[in-house]
Amino acid sequence: xxxxxxxxxxxxxxxxxxxxxxxxxxxxxxxxxxxxxxxxxxxxxxxxxxxxxxxxxxxxxxxxxxxxxxxxxxxxxxxxxxxxxxxxxxxxxxxxxxxxxxxxxxxxxxxxxxxxxxxxxxxxxxxxxxxxxxxxxxxxxxxxxxxxxxxxxxxxxxxxxxxxxxxxxxxxxxxxxxxxxxxxxxxxxxxxxxxxxxxxxxxxxxxxxxxxxxxxxxxxxxxxxxxxxxxxxxxxxxxxxxxxxxxxxxxxxxxxxxxxxxxxxxxxxxxxxxxxxxxxxxxxxxxxxxxxxxxxxxxxxxxxxxxxxxxxxxxxxxxxxxxxxxxxxxxxxxxxxxxxxxxxxxxxxxxxxxxx
Length: 356
Known about the structure:
Layout: H1 9-26, E1 41-45, H2 47-50, E2 51-52, H3 54-63, H4 65-74, E3 81-82, H5 86-102, E4 110-116, H6 123-132, E5 139-142, H7 149-152, E6 157-162, H8 165-173, E7 178-181, E8 195-199, H9 209-217, H10 219-228, H11 240-254, E9 264-270, H12 274-277, H13 279-288, E10 294-297, H14 304-310, E11 314-317, H15 320-328, E12 333-335
């Protein structure tokens, strides 16, 4: 019998990465090398989310693909304007710079992948725009009109940001953290040195189990339920894994005694009341081993003014009325289409079946 030992897929993959590492290290370049996906916090972002392509989108819808591609080729030397996700991506790059200073050989970094169904010919303008703004985005996935969702797991995506709500919903159904972003104006006063990420609680970090009770049985029953089950952790929501990934990178700064100067700051901004139903949320995070830097319990008050004060690079919420209120005051917001809130409006109880 042969003594040849079969090589595992993992071993093959590791050899490929080592070969790539040697190749890149032998090249003289000042550009940072992309990290291995298995170590990185991977952010997949669509081209229409990273850049403002509203005009180009209208051209595509009005005149079709051929004219759209021709327009992009004609204007490929002109940089696209920043889109809604641009400040977030820019801040991510700033965090990477700090991580590389503290850990020169570490591959635990953010990795941004441009995930788009654009035609490959449009790629030149996208590359030129990325280089124009000094963004380090080396991984592209251009699918030529096909949905890119099938590639998200292959890229080991931690979060997917897109303007296409159908694709975002599809990603969440596949178990991938995702959110829909919108074209909007935003302030240019966002921090250049600290990435600020704000999350809603129910149906974002946590499941919608408690929100279902509010919709079905009202606030009083909800308060009673949360007190009764205060020590029972909530089930995880679609973005829990992204908070977990952010926490992994935060701890690298803490290990270097940089907690007070950490360039990542997280916020919980929830409509929950603190005294009536806040303990379960905080105990759930503790059980998960996750920290949140600031927790704001608003007891039903509008979130927009608080978010305007925080100035996050991105705010995630499952309720469109919170998104709209935040956007009106200039906060870059992303909708998480998950849970019962997608089917019912605020304060409207689920219609109960008639009793026979």
